Amino acid sequence: MQPTTILPRPGAGPLPVPKGAGLTHRGRVRTQNEDAILADPSHVLWAVADGMGGHEGGAVAADLVIDALAAIGDQADPPEALEDAIERANTIVRIAARERGAQVMGATVVALFIAQGVAHVAWAGDSRAYLLRGQRLRMLTHDHTVVQGMVDRGEIGSDEAEGHPEAHIITRAVGAAPEIEVDHAAVPLILGDRLMLCSDGLPRCLYESAIETILSQGGHAQATCEALVLRALEEGAPDNVSVVVVDLVAG
Q1: CATH classification of 17-249 is 3.60.40.10, yes or no?
Q2: What is the spatial distance between Cα 176 and Cα 155, in angstroms, rounded to a whole number?
Q3: Where are the domains of the chain?
Q4: CB of 111 within 8 A of CB of 22?
Q5: Is the pLDDT of residue 1 over 50?
Q6: By CB atoms within 10 Å of each CB, which of 64, 94, 163, 198 scores lowest?
Q7: How many other CB atoms are found less than 10 A from the CB of residue 82?
Q8: pLDDT, tens digit, for every residue of 158-200?
Q9: Using H for helix, E for strand and C for coil, what is the string for the chain?
């Protein structure tokens, strides 16, 4: 696991309480939804998994990842529990792929565990997590893709990454290899923060400025999820689209 990064929580006072919702849609083009989401009724754990493999294999992989994460207890140690669940899912997905005779079967994942006023995020692939604080949107994850690697190495600029022909090629996913490396970040939260998880189907349709505008409009988390998915559908939604929005409210 990568070293944990924790940013200081501004201010003091009672910890904010998370309240969230999620929505997933197959989009305008795909015949099947291979995304899966987790929206914990206890408002502790959320996740988005984006399956790959076709012929229902991607949907199975995404469901297996979500099942592994859903088994995490509310009192677990967040970084360890998230990593263990994703590693366990990696093994389960690979076993399922062998049983199905699938050469390619896996899923990207981003998971959020909120404990003691801190958002713990774990991910593999290009499903993303964002934080909206005030009117500013910040991405908390870092894509595991061929193109992002090219940007990181200075081979291309970030502006060239948009629309790159290899933009869809991921370098890390649950089930893709015998071992999986899970990245992790932790961000202390304040009242009024809004978190969003999404599959890559959303940023493929909407610029971050558009996502920021919709998230900044406030309203209930469910209504915001619906607004984001609707906007993606209006833009053509060539891929499945999944969104989870979590608000930090007064207890």
Answers
A1: yes
A2: 26
A3: 17-249
A4: no
A5: no
A6: 163
A7: 26
A8: 777 766 777 778 999 999 999 999 999 999 999 999 999 999 9
A9: CCCCCECCCCCCCCCCEEEEEEEEECCCCCCCCCEEEEECCCCCEEEEEEEECCCCHHHHHHHHHHHHHHCCCCCCCHHHHHHHHHHHHHHHHHHHHHHHCCCCCEEEEEEEEEECCEEEEEEECCCEEEEEECCEEEECCCCCEHHHHHHHCCCCCHHHHCCCCCCCCECCCECCCCCCCCEEEEEECCCCCEEEEECCCCCCCCCHHHHHHHHHCCCCHHHHHHHHHHHHHHCCCCCCEEEEEEEEECC
Q: Which two tokens stand for residue 88?
A: 């366990």
Give the orientation angle of helix 78-100 with respect to helix 57-70, to 10 degrees.
150
Q: Please give the single-letter amino acid code of residue 141.
A: T
